[in-house]
Specification:
11-stranded antiparallel sheet; 1 helix; elongated; single chain; about 60% strand; Lipocalin; mainly beta
């Protein structure tokens, strides 16, 4: 999984992890996932200080995983429930099958999950975070 975080006034960074538990099941022309967990502790942005701030903002001790539930897709588009920091939001996504994986793309609003005020020396994090993930397909 790769999350692209844009900064204001300029710049960006990526947060990566390979610690994703769960899979997508194909039933006819529909793809479904009942529960996928992503370990917040495993997030890596190539900057230990930033990673520590990220874990603090995401309250890793209280909420160690981001959970994707009830994901259903058909024809390259779908919707899932994403739970982060105790808040659940409906999130639309696009996807493409790639052999034994499904490549998924979506965006989240940090404000929708109660995450605001991220600023360091005049550089802030923009609200929209774009996420790309590859999930095993069964």
């Amino acid at each position: 999984m790769v999350a692209k975080v844009n900064l204001n006034p300029m710049g960006s960074f990526e947060v990566k992890t390979k610690r994703i538990r769960g899979n997508v099941v194909k039933k006819g022309d529909t793809l479904q996932a009942t529960s996928i967990e992503v370990s917040v502790k495993s997030f890596d942005s190539d900057n230990e200080t930033r990673d520590g701030h990220l874990r603090d903002k995401l309250e890793v001790k209280k909420f160690p995983n981001i959970v994707v539930e009830k994901a259903i897709g058909k024809g390259g588009k779908g919707q899932a429930l994403i739970k982060m920091r105790g808040v659940t939001q409906k999130v639309p996504f696009t996807y493409k099958e790639a052999g034994k994986e499904v490549n998924v793309n979506f965006s989240i609003s940090l404000k929708a999950y109660g995450i605001t005020g991220i600023n360091y020396m005049g550089v802030g994090v923009q609200d929209e975070v774009k996420i790309a993930a590859s999930i095993p397909l069964k």
